[in-house]
Amino acid sequence: MTTSRSSGGRRLHPTVRYVAGRVAQAVVVLWAVYTVTFGILYLLPSDPVSLQLAAANVQVDELSPAELAAAKAQYGLDRPLSTQYFDHLGGLLHGDFGRSISLHRPVGELLAERLPSTLALGATAIALALLLGGGLAYLAAYVRPGRLKLALNRLPAVGVSLPPFFVGLLLVQVFAFELGWFPPTGTEGFSSLVLPAVTMALPTAAMLAQVLTRSLDDQLAEPYVTTAAARGLSRQYVQARHALRNAVLPALTLLGLLLGATVTEAVVAETVFSRQGVGQMAQQAVLAQDVPLVQAIVVVAATAFVLINLVIDLVYPLFDPRITHTPRVS
Amino acid sequence: MHRYKRPLIALTALALLSACGGGATAAGDGGDEGTPVKGGTLRLAFWDDQQGCIDPNQVYWIESRSLNRQFADSLTDQDPETGKIVPWLATSWKINDDATKYTFELRDDVTFSDGTAFDAAAVKTAFDATHDLGAKSLLGLTYTAGYKSSKVIDDHTVEVDFDTPNAAFLQATSTTTLSILSPKTYEQTPEERCTGENLVGTGAFTLDSYTAATEAHLTRRDDYAWPSQLVKNQGAAYLDAIEVSYIKEDSVRVGSLTSGSVDIAWPRLPISEADQKVIEATGASVESRSLPGISSSYFPNVTEGRVLADEKVRQALQKAIDRKSYASTIFWADYPVVTGPFDSTTPYSTDGSAALAHDLEGAKKLLDEAGWSAGADGYRTKDGKTLTLTIPVRDTTPGDQLVQDQLKQAGFRVELKVLTLAQYQAAAAGGEYDLLGTYYTRADPSVLGSVLDQAVSQAGTAQLSQAGATADEISGLFRAGLEATDDGKRSGAYADLQQEILEQGVMFPLYERVQTAGISAKVHGFAWTSEAFLRANDIWVDQ
């Protein structure tokens, strides 16, 4: 579809152009995220300097003016706001996230320590959500109208309305304390991943199932399905080969958004299951007003979000060849 | 500012064994059943670690102080029963008459776990470094108030000099805050020390690893032989190791104890009555001790124009709070009722229950006299103004709401202002409140000075809670307490201080703070330190 326009070598391959454009967009988004976070943290109704000194465990009201000045200098808080802004930004560009004020360690080190656990949790939760949500939707669309179909169609609504915090506590109670199948807390091994991943996967799975069921039903009512069936193709084959491919697009869009929500869900899951991941650290950092740490976490989360959505956009044509990344021509 | 941190500090207290030990097997308080067995690991679950620092000299977070005690020793120790200071790394001491010169004789058989000998130079290095931390060490700041310098007299004699009298320093030498770490430890920056790497003490355990809010691991020191006389086991500890985790959710922490995945569940707030029943049903027990130091109290803002500027209104407020029903409603039936500015485990605390008795009619009468007349909606008014008390809070607790309801009976309208941390700090610093809650843990009454003494503290609770003659009198009594090395004089000064505070309405005690811990049936020999921290020397576990 693109060969005819790739002549001359002056024009880039449209896909490359598309990706380059998206990357440029991503950079702008990340810069905006950084700037807005910086602004919010500094515009809170209080003295950011005192707050950060408090986070660094310095008792500001006990300091003499000279001591206060020294303490500010030690944490670099005496520099003009704009200098701090550009220094932080420059550092980030060089991969230097600065030092956490409340945890007394380099932010990069803290992230390296905690990201793997959160990534493993997020990936497991998403895989589980796809399996559960996709499976349920597929099944709900496949069964003939009746009570079972009604029940399967209603099930996601239950899942969506269950508060993850409550689900987490319930799971710990039953599967850790009563049955002893999984450890209640901790970050060690795969078995510690199961309960928090299920906690996180349930709402995501439910939302996916809702959207996918609906669009599968819509697709199955399309004339092409009737045509396919008339040609003697089995119901199973039509649903899997024709309807699903068309139905999956809205679900895919939703998935991109849900992946972004993983960070928020991780806060809950990591708190309930005492997992030391980025989610819990984010919550602590916000409470402690640990500016460098909050900044770094927000930027990392935003990068992940941008990347995931880029990948999803690139995956669309695989499901629907009508979608190409050819730039629109006016 | 950040009064909020003070609340976090507090934690420790006395044996309410009758109240919540229930009939469960005596795991604590000696735990002398059976013969101690060597070996095994103690798995301990704390609530949280928001300070994220494990350096004893800098820590105010009480959970961290419980860990500090296991790997860092101090010059003296404090008897939890009597509050008396007893020898530990120091064998004896002399204090001059105005409490400005302390001379300690040191043990000569003690080594740090890095092999360095413990001597007078090490003590000097540690005290100098702790004092140098300044505002980085909230506790060190008050413990070493007036510190001038330390002098090495000979290898095993050290002299500590003060510019101003500090009679509370002897108790300070028993705290984890003034633990003596190896001189090499102090070659690192305060930030590096916080992370727990190369933190070396003379304790019965060594700190192998610490990750803030995540985990800590301690192992026994086999050549340990210098506990204080308060410890039964005079040799190396029984436990091979102590493994610490942090579990924020109460129900998960309690469930971990009852399902056997931890051995001690150590919360911040008292374990609820319902959870205690669950714990005791599994054969585990609940230990408790009131945290010595300032009871959980409100401090007024008596600035001209505020309703609490009027002494009669303050006295009415004191009478309108029903502390008995607070203790039994918010906690449980036999929960100790607060009796004064200090929790009952604080040395020199006196019983001020009479001044704190609930007297609704008396309160109403005082408010009538002060010109606040009852309105149709139950709230009192004067010159068209409603009798409103603004209390900033981080979140509303059942306790806050109970107080709100109790004060309404007398005609006060309590406005609970829920603020974010930042706003809360600003409100506290700017005096935008009528009452501000705080507490503080230390087994010495001088601790109150850092919150209430205008002469030494810039905090709002000190500057705004008293005026004129009352302020002078209170500062004078704090000074007298720090100057008196004689026990009788000290107790006299602090008794007068407590009476003055309650009568003038400088402080409105609300409840006694109790540290509880759920202890598995397989744990024996559990013991509290005087400040209600863990002492693990005597602990052994069934194998």
Automatic annotation (TrEMBL), chain A:
Residues 115-316 form the ABC transmembrane type-1 domain. It comes from the Bacteria. The keyword Repressor does not apply. It is a multi-pass membrane protein. Its main location: membrane. It is found in: Cell membrane. InterPro entries: BPD_transp_1_N, MetI-like, MetI-like_sf. Keywords: Cell membrane, Membrane, Transmembrane, Transmembrane helix, Transport. The chain crosses the membrane at residues 21-44, 119-143, 155-177, 189-209, 247-273, 293-319. The keyword rRNA processing does not apply. Signal peptide: none annotated. Belongs to the binding-protein-dependent transport system permease family. This is ABC transporter permease. It comes from Kineosporia corallincola.
UniProtKB/TrEMBL annotation, chain B:
Residues 1-26 form the signal peptide. It is found in: Cell envelope. Its main location: other. Keywords: Signal, Transport. Residues 84-444 form the Solute-binding protein family domain. It comes from the Bacteria. Belongs to the bacterial solute-binding protein 5 family. This is ABC transporter substrate-binding protein. It comes from Kineosporia corallincola. The lineage of its organism: Bacteria, Bacillati, Actinomycetota, Actinomycetes, Kineosporiales.
